[in-house]
Specification:
Layout lengths: L3 H5 L4 H12 L1 H10 L4 H21 L2 H13 L13 H18 L5
Helix pairs in contact: 2-5, 3-4, 4-6, 5-6
Length: 111
Amino acid sequence: MPSVNKEAQLLPPSVCHAVRAMCEDYDRRQEEIRRGKLPPATLGHYMMLNAAIDAALESCCEENVREAIRRDIASHTGHRFTQLYYLSPGTYKERKRKSKLAIARALGLLP
């Protein structure tokens, strides 16, 4: 019998797509923040979005895997093709699932 807690943490497809899109756009927002040429309100929004993603990943993953997990979420990379080859498939999948859930919550897409 599957764990009720794990079932409760399954993400709706639309939320998965939104999380993936936000992770995919992370580097572009980071570059715009670095350049500083956009209106302050836009830059502030970009900073808040990236900070929310960073905080969500920090709550689930060790520092040395956060960026790779974010990039894998963005590119829809699975355990067979990840750069995190040293993680067992089960550990990798669990970290990625928890990361998606934490990002969705941090972005206000889930309660």
